[in-house]
Each structure stands twice: as C-alpha cells, then as structure tokens.
Amino acid sequence: MPDAHSGKGSAVGTVIPTIDAVIPAAVGVDIGCGMIAARTEFTATDLHGRDLAALRTAIETAIPLSPGNYNDTLARFPFTAGRIADLEHLAQDGGIDLSHSPKWREQLGSLGGGNHFIELCLDQADRVWLFLHSGSRGVGNKIAQKHIKIAQRLMKQWWIELPNPDLAYL
Fold first, then answer.
1. Cβ neighbours of residue 7 under 8 Å, at least 6 residues apart?
2. Are 123 and 40 a contacting pair, CB within 8 Å?
3. pLDDT tens profile 52-88
4. Is 122 helix (H, G, I), strand (E, B) or coil?
C-alpha cells in the first residue's frame, strides 16, 4: 500500500472500485505525499560499532520533521538560496499563486508533519535501505477538502444517502 492510515471515510491507500466515479476523500488528503525506498551502498556490517544515536541526529538535522517549523534559517545549505530563487521564478512565470502556503520556503527539505518519517531498514541480504514518507505540507489536504465539499453538496442535491458523508463522490 502506498500509504495506510486513517483518512476521511476510509483509510488512505484503500482501493475502492467505482464505475464513472471518484471519491475525493478516498483519493486522500495526502495528495502530494511521497514514499520511496532507496538502497544505500551500506550493509548491516557497516553499522556495527557505529554511534547510531549520532547517525539519527545527523539525519534529523539534515531533514527535519514538521512542515518547516524547525527550519529557523533559509541558509542551512549552500544550494538553498539558489533553489528558492529558481522556484520563485518558476511560480512567477507560470502565474502560480503561492499565498496559500506562506511557509513553503521553510518547508523545502522537511518531511512534513504527522505520520511522515525516515527510517533505515535492512533487507534479507542485510543491505541498508533508506525508507522515506514525506508529506504534502497541507496542499493535499486543501485540494481534497475543496473536492470533498463539492461532492457532498452534489450528494445532497441528488438526494443520495451514503453510510458516511466523506464517501461522497463525483
């Protein structure tokens, strides 16, 4: 499952077969979240004798949890200012209004909040993997809420009763 936790009307990641319908809440408020597993060059043997607490601190320092709440500077890395400038130009050239997310600069490089995480895992061959689940930083929730409200309004308009109003569909 790409993501499995409580959602609105169903668990995020639930597969609900429909015909000519989309259930915005089942698509999820996690639109824009990402998950990836990347195999590193390391093995379990490489971790023996290492200070795992220091490794964890280094990872958390480089990629903070939260939607940017712990980024107290936009100059943490040498490339940050250039990347922000590039993104500002892309938004301006594309006519994209970023006012819905005033903290987007601080959110760059963060995991997001809630159930988002980074973990190191071992596979059957004792190779080390980095597994990451990053958040949408509220953008997915805003997109979903807009469409959930439209679907709920249409259900009332068409006199369609559902076991849960968050299963309203378009």
1. 14, 25, 26, 28, 29, 30
2. no
3. 999 989 988 888 777 777 777 788 788 888 999 999 9
4. strand
Q: Are 82 and 66 contained in the same domain?
A: no
Alpha helix segments (H runs only) across the chain? 24-27, 44-47, 52-62, 80-93, 104-107, 139-157
Return d(Cα 115, Cα 130) in angstroms, integer: 16
If one counts the domains in the chain, the total is: 3
Residue type, 124: Q
- Same domain for 116 and 40: yes
Q: What is the identity of the amino acid at 33?
A: C
Residue 1 CB contacts under 8 Å (≥ 6 apart), including other chains: 13
Domain that holds residue 98: 74-108
Whether this prediction's pTM lies above 0.85 is answered by no
Q: What is the DSSP letter of 166?
A: G
